[in-house]
Structures are given as structure tokens and as C-alpha cells.
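queue> pop job 88
queue> type: inverse folding (structure -> sequence)
queue> payload:
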């Protein structure tokens, strides 16, 4: 078995959220550590165990921490019902990267809380949602307009 560990660096915390949602979830990643300054995700692909570490200041990690809290809360509640959290970690497997629920969590972390926007967001790719949210910070436009650009 090969074991890889990497600390990932992102310029924008929202890009890190998009990475977790798009790249880690699709392979069944597990959040094994959550703190305000560090999130560790382990993913087993074929015979390799990949550990991705996201670290930063409390301010830098705020969007990732919020996203991880949304995910772990939902998954723990469902695992209590289904009893599939046998190993003390939180499996992200039930939420593939295209999941509407994951996309709504990404939108909430990006500060998109208008119900009309949340209604149209899940029909888009996560990277497009994050790009539109970043554009909203720079431009005076609606979420719908930002998605169209």
C-alpha cells in the first residue's frame, strides 16, 4: 500500500472549499480532523491512502471550517440513523461532488443565502458557483448575472 501526505496551498479559501467538494468527495474522502486552523481529509484510492491537509490562520480557514462543520453535522446525524460511522471518522461517500446538498453548502460558505439564488445554484458546477461568488465580491451584480459571465 502506498501512503501519500500533502499539505495543499490555495490563494483563496473558497478555492480550497471547491477542491474539497470536487476532488476529495468524488473519491469517498473522510474528514478525520477538523479544527479552526486545520482540516485533514483521508482518501483511499485503489491501494493508496492519500492524506490532504488544509492549514491556515483562523481567518483563512473560516470558510473551510464552516463547510466541514456543515458536512460533518449532516453526516453524523445520518450515520446515527444508518450506523455507518464505525471507525470514528466521518465518511463523505454519501455526498458525491455533484450532490445538490454539497453545492448548497458551498453556496452558503460563499455567502450566497438568497433563496432564489440557492434555487438556481445547484444546477451549476461547483467551480462556477465559487467563481460567481468571487465575482460578486468585486462587481455589483446578481448571482444569476455572475453565473452568466
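queue> result:
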Amino acid at each position: 500500500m502506498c501512503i501519500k501526505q500533502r499539505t495543499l496551498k490555495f490563494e483563496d479559501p473558497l478555492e480550497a472549499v471547491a477542491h474539497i467538494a470536487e476532488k476529495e468527495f468524488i473519491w469517498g474522502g473522510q474528514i478525520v480532523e477538523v479544527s479552526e486552523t486545520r482540516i485533514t481529509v483521508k482518501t483511499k484510492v485503489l491501494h493508496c491512502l492519500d492524506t490532504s491537509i488544509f492549514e491556515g490562520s483562523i481567518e483563512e480557514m473560516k470558510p473551510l471550517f464552516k463547510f466541514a462543520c456543515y458536512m460533518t453535522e449532516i453526516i453524523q446525524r445520518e450515520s446515527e440513523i444508518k450506523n455507518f460511522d464505525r471507525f470514528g471518522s466521518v465518511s463523505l461517500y454519501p455526498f458525491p461532488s455533484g450532490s445538490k446538498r454539497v453545492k448548497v453548502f458551498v453556496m452558503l460558505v460563499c455567502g450566497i443565502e438568497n433563496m432564489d439564488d440557492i434555487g438556481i445554484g445547484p444546477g451549476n458546477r461547483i467551480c462556477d458557483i465559487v467563481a460567481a461568488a468571487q465575482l460578486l465580491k468585486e462587481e455589483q451584480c446578481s448571482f444569476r448575472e455572475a453565473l452568466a459571465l
